[in-house]
Amino acid sequence: MTSTVVGESHALESVAAPILASEGIRLESELVNRVCREGRPRAAVWQARRALIVTAREARMPGFAQASAALAARETPVLVRESGGGAVILGPGVIVLSLVDVLGADESGAPAPIFRGFESLRSVVEQALAPWNCRVAFGSVRSSYCDGRYNLTLGGRKFAGTAQRHRAGANHAVLAHAAVMVDCDVAEHLACIARFLGSCGLEGRFDPASCLTVRDAAHGARFDDVWRSLESAVDQWLTVRWGSAAACLLRHPQRLSMDRPRT
């Protein structure tokens, strides 16, 4: 297993080996705490072992405990995150992008817009997918999972769910994260979420045609190539947000690649 402890001098954590989803959630919390204390942006690119991640609101649904136990018995543990949105599957073929910024003032002195974190996600992901001529947009997508106005879409179909979390401290930190479906079974993901919500007494009807993977949209883009492109785009975002100081990248290269071992 690779360590997920945030290094003292690193702005970007690239956790290559699939980790427990609980470790990824803890990593995000550590980044938020650091930004609250230090007032400088941090980020992580990571992938998790199979898990269903739900919100605190969903964890209060009737039947949640029983539905969680049933899913865990099928090797899909259920964990609760602190951001908004809705249930999402993490696991093989899904890359999680976590950007933690400071909610300050814009150049005019006015408070920064609350959605700036979502725009950072969109611009970083679009930059990462530029080699495949992908134009990333926001938009609600009918019959998609975890639907919202800040879905990341390609050609009107959702490929990443997004959410935010705010925390006030010495600085006001904003975590914006996205679960990017690069190369996974979309229909299976939606069916799993629908079964879980149904077990909790909610109707979950999702249309697999509402979503797609990066591999589908980018004509067979390889998981490893998308990962490296996301690393580069996040590193550039951090460099801009830090000013003249170049962002340091801490890699954990022991990833279990879906395509081939990294050389």
List keywords for this structure.
263 residues, 11 strands, BirA Bifunctional Protein, domain 2, single chain, eight-stranded mixed sheet
What topology emerges from the helices and strands here?
Blueprint: E1 12-19, H1 21-38, E2 42-48, E3 51-54, H2 56-59, H3 64-72, E4 78-80, E5 88-90, E6 94-102, H4 116-129, E7 136-138, E8 152-154, E9 157-168, E10 172-181, H5 186-199, H6 214-217, H7 223-242, E11 249-252
Parallel strand pairs: 1-2, 1-11, 3-4
Antiparallel strand pairs: 2-6, 3-5, 6-10, 7-8, 8-9, 9-10
What's the gist of this structure?
The protein has 263 residues and is of the alpha/beta class. It has 7 helices and 11 strands.
Structural write-up:
The protein has one domain: BirA Bifunctional Protein, domain 2 (2-Layer Sandwich), CATH 3.30.930.10. The protein is globular and about 50 Å long. Residues 1-9 and 253-263 have low confidence and may be disordered. The two termini are 19 Å apart. 41% of the residues are buried. The protein has an eight-stranded mixed beta sheet, with helices on both faces. Strands 4-3-5 form a three-stranded mixed beta sheet. Helix 4 crosses helix 7 (223-242). The chain contains seven helices and eleven strands. It is of the alpha/beta class and 263 residues long.
**Counting H and I runs of at least 4 residues, what is the number of helices?**
7
**Using DSSP, what is the number of strands?**
11
CATH architecture: 2-Layer Sandwich
Distance separating the two termini: 19 Å
Q: Assign the CATH topology.
A: BirA Bifunctional Protein, domain 2
What is the residue-mean pLDDT, rounded to a whole number? 87
For the CA atoms, what is the radius of gyration?
Answer: 18 Å
Query: CATH superfamily, called what?
Result: Bira Bifunctional Protein, Domain 2
What class do helices, strands and sheet pairing give? Answer: alpha/beta
Numbering strands along the chain, what is their spatial order in the largest sheet? Answer: 7-8-9-10-6-2-1-11
User: CATH class, anyone?
Assistant: Alpha Beta
Task: Encode the helix/strand succession as letters.
Answer: EHEEHHEEEHEEEEHHHE
Percentage of residues in strands: 25-35%
